[in-house]
Amino acid sequence: MKLEKIPLKTVRPLYYKEICLGLLGFKPDDDDGEKKVEAFCAEEVEELVKKATKDHPQNPKRPSPPLIRLRVDNSGGFPTFNVNRLAQQFVNKVANPQDIIRFHAKVEATSGKEKGW
Questions:
Q1: How many angstroms separate the CA atoms of 68 and 97, rounded?
Q2: Residue 57, CA distances (Å) to 12, 39, 74 in order
Q3: HSE-up of 37 (CA within 13 Å, CB side)?
Q4: Cα–Cα distances in Å, from 83 out to 48, 55, 60, 111?
Q5: What does the alpha-carbon distance between residue 8 and residue 24 come to, in Å, rounded to a whole number?
Q6: Residue range 90-113, pLDDT digits in tens
Q7: What is the Cα–Cα distance from 58 to 84, expressed in whole angstroms?
Q8: Which helix (H) or strand (E) holds 52?
Q9: CB-based burial of residue 11 (10 Å sphere; 0-12 exposed, 13-18 middle, 19+ buried)?
Q10: Is the Cα torsion angle 36, 40, 45, 46 positive or negative in sign?
C-alpha cells in the first residue's frame, strides 16, 4: 500500500532564530549598546516576518500571522532592553508579539570542589 503525502494547509508557520551578541561584534560596555541591540533585534524579526510572508502565501484556512521567536544569547554582560516596547512594532504582523524575543545567558557549570563543598 502506497501512502500519498498531503501537505498541511492550516498550520501556522513558525520561524526561529538564535543569535549570540558576542559573536556579532557588540560590546558589553558600549554606551548605546541597548539601543543598538534593540535595533538589531527589530531588524532580525522584520527579516523573519518577510521570509514567512514569502514562504507561505495567504490561504483563507491558514492563520495569517506567523509565530516568530528570536533567542538572544547575552552572555558576558550585554545589555537587554524592554521587549514590550519592541513587541508594539509587531502587534499585527506576528501572532506572538509578547514572546518574540527571549534573552538567555549561558551559565558556567562549577563543581562542588570549586565552591568549597
A1: 8
A2: 12, 27, 34
A3: 29
A4: 17, 26, 31, 34
A5: 36
A6: 999 999 999 999 999 877 766 666
A7: 28
A8: helix 33-55
A9: exposed
A10: positive
- Containing 72, the helix (H) or strand (E) segment is strand 67-73
| Sign of the CA dihedral with 105 first, then 108, 112, and 117 last | negative
The answer to whether residues 100 and 69 touch, using CB atoms and an 8 Å cutoff, is yes
Cell readout for 30 is 558600549
User: What is the pTM assigned to this prediction?
Assistant: 0.78
Q: In this predicted model, what pLDDT tens digit does every residue of 20-29 receive, in sequence order? A: 988 888 888 8
**Ramachandran area for residue 70 (φ above 0: left; ψ -120 to 50: alpha; else beta):** beta
> Contact at 8 Å (CB) between 17 and 71?
yes
